[in-house]
Amino acid sequence: MNRPLTSRRPSTEEIDKPQSNCGIVGIYGDPAASTLTYYGLHALQHRGQEASGIVSCFSTANGEHSSRLRIYKGPGLVTEVFENQSLLDDLLIGDMAIGHNRYSTTGSDNLENIQPFMVNYRDGQLAVAHNGNLTNTRALRRRLQDEGTIFQTSTDTEVILHLTARSTAATPEDRIMDALNTVRGAYSLVMLHNDTLIAARDPHGFRPLCIGRRGEAWVIASETCALDIMQAEYVREVEPGEVLFFDTRMEENGQPVTRRLAMEPERYHHCIFEYIYFSRPDSRVFGENVDKIRRKLGKALAEEHPVHGTPDDPVFIMSVPDSSNTAAIGFQRSSFKQGIEARYEIGMIRNHYIGRTFIQPGQEKREMKVRMKFNTVRGVVEGRKVVIIDDSIVRGTTSRLLLNLIREANPRELHVRISSPPIMSGCPYGMDFPSGEELIAAQHQGDVDSIRREIGADTLGYLSKEKMLGCVSHEGKRGYCTGCFTGEYPVPVEENMRKDQHEM
Q1: Which sign does the torsion angle of CA 391, 392, 397, 399 carry?
Q2: 22 is catalytic
Q3: Shared domain check, 304 and 247
Q4: Per-residue pLDDT tens for 355-408?
Q5: Of 22, 225, 427, 484, catalytic
Q6: Domain carrying residue 359
Q7: CA–CA gap between residue 51 and residue 72 (Å, rounded)
Q8: Are residues 309 and 209 located together in one domain of the fold?
Q9: Are 215 and 356 in the same domain?
């Protein structure tokens, strides 16, 4: 069942940040599975605001298949899509469920592209929710279409469904494994196949996915903040290349059946931007606390690009709220340890309630968008030596407008420090960066002083790649994808890959 509304996409005039990928949740063995999924999706709202959906599974105790799946999805925030409690209590019944928050990194924002997807096929019913981007979609779609497959959406996720349905492997489980061994790229998945919950992660581990327990029930989620709201205990990550099957077979030892994908890379390639910007600071991602990593990034940034202050002329450290808050704390503490008189101040207030607007493109309108979202605390800024901490600069348009806004409060000096390297390339693995020609760092060929002049800062400092990687763990096979900074991608990408490449 779909929510009968017109699709709404976040305004193109949103603050200039890389857009979050999707958030996914899975529940096994709890009679309130759909309600718990709703709460988990609410905690993961930052990972996608275009649409939400839930599929539940309930037992029928008759027929060839003893379970049935039910679905409800629509455009909007979680609270908008599921504003009627009866949807969770009466429609989406059962003790298993999967859920999805969408941001369209592939495929348009059309209603047919809203996840989860659900199909009826020879083995019963199959539903899937996907976070990430596949990088061999074009070749697979062409092959499947040549074999007679009819596609209903323009997303890469549908490819997984068709590969599963057309597989000639011996069992339904083998057919799912066959499909996942065929696709390439970034994917964290939750699936419902009749009365089995499946969780899977690509061999490189690009996207996060964790496991929790809630009493006897199992919980799967993109981030641990979703486990917290459901009062579930964190168990571990789904390992890269691991596929877990939660079903009645667990009655023997209480543990899901575990299988491994065929590919075994020498090192994993976790997306470093999950730490820099995307994940919530109260989450544990890739085995590390996000808040702790961001403080380390701020500390390293202060060591690499200090701004000097004295007791008579202190430095006032401010963040661009909210993703840069903890990096700013790390910057201030490191500055203080260096003997620099540095104070952390809340010099900028973010309005969390502006919602979507109907503002049209144009310089004046962009400026108003920034003013609607941010305002300065003049008493903190006026006459001060101010350091603005931000996590990244993408197009540079918002940075320039934001600095213009801060200058209206008359700071004496305005320094900008970025807790990541310059973004030089797009991302094919599920982060919606603009194309290279739109990125300010690429436009200026990485010339920091040229970027500084364009955004209007007195000084500008980026964290180096080396310092950034020094803030994260490298134990075992753990490694990180830094393709957006270097243009070097660990998994081959189809030429000219773009979000709307399969639009019909």
Answers
A1: positive
A2: yes
A3: no
A4: 544 444 455 677 888 888 999 999 999 999 999 999 999 999 999 999 999 999
A5: 22
A6: 288-472
A7: 11
A8: no
A9: no
